[in-house]
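Researcher: We're teaching a course module on how sequence relates to structure. For the next exercise, students receive a sequence and then see the predicted structure as tokens, so they can try to spot secondary structure elements on their own. Here is the exercise chain.
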Amino acid sequence: MTQSMSTLLILGASGDLSSRLLLPALGQLLTKNPDQGLRLVGAGGEELTPAAWKATVKKSFATVAASGTAVDRLLSTTLYRTADVTRSSEMERLLGECDGPTAIYFALPPAVTVHVCDALSEITLPEGTELVLEKPFGTDEKSAVALNERLAKLVPENQIHRVDHFLGRSTVFNLLGLRFANRIFEPLWNNDHVERVDIVYDEQLGLECRSGYYDHAGALVDMIQSHLLQVMAVLAMEPPATLGAADLRDAKGIVLRATRLLGGSPKRSSRRARYTTGTIAGKKLPAYVDEDGVDPKNDTETLAEVTFEIDNWRWAGVPFTLRAGKALDDRRREIVITFKPVPHVPTGLQGLEEPTVLRIFLAPDEMSLELNINGPGDPHTLERVSLDATFGEGQLLAYGEVLEGLLDGDPSLSVRGDTAEQCWRIVAPVLAAWRTGKVPLDEYAAGTAGPSTWTPLE
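Model: And here is the predicted structure for the students to work with:
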């Protein structure tokens, strides 16, 4: 039986986020759920004819081979409206064309999102309206608090979805399953056994025409303040009683409230760099400052490393280093948990005495456990081996998982308002130090591993 009708209203529907990520994910979700009753309404400042809009949706759907009754039904009813979404009268008109409970997806820059919220405050929202926002949630802790206050006047917190696609169901559940369904890991998941944790997201891609946003954000805000702190929270949180929204989000919030810059010193616990011209996979990249739309005076970093500490019983004394960068020599997306060395190796065993290392790879989701064992030759000689496993693939793209949670009314994997504020609080000392030049902006050639002078952070 077809589910009751609801509407997804995408503001900024003519933009890249919508066509490249949202619409393909929607097509995949509808293919998986052929009984899903959903209407799609797009809105934006660009003029699009009904035929042009439908062609845009079809083209996006084709990238995931979307098909079935739900897809056909949506294509037959979808519409696009040119509108100034910062005006209350325009938003009221758009909502009047939506059927059933409506989810408003803000595929817009943060500054525009604030103005849309102000416009929505002047009208009566239909019952059951959900609001969906892309990061960044504000530009600092003060603006995040102000944004949350705006949102709270519109709908209850459980109807607000702050999207972080790094927290898709498969990634979160893989981490939870690994930790809590295996007795071998959870007893070791603490400062008695863990030496350090590194969460790394190195990309080979350069700026890729994102200067309008990235040149004002940089690697710290773009990746560490949002995505990587959220991954860290899931990795380090206490076992939740259930996988329900309240328990999961409470557990993450507790970890983030205990997180702070290691030693309180941005100079000792953070560093930044920017790429110069270089070559990656045979492709020549210009220096970041020569990319279109970049203002060199912004001193925007393209590589950031920050080491935090979690001030609680489980993790006191364990450094958590988060790193993200662009135009690097290798695509590296992983969580690295380095365990403490064994207290004693019996006399007579020779060779490697490296610590046990657990690597959890992101996209594709895989893991490896690096161990020391006796080699096939001399039994007194240790060798390094890796036990590898592949996690089950998620059924949907990351944004498909986001949309499924939205349409199911499940905010468990979205970022709660208080944790969004905490993430800004955590990085505030680093941002302040970087803006005043207290931490130097180093350089590295595109296609290298970073500045040659960098050694591991504390």
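Model: If you want an answer key for the exercise: The longest strand covers residues 381-390. The CA atoms of residues 93 and 223 lie 36 Å apart.
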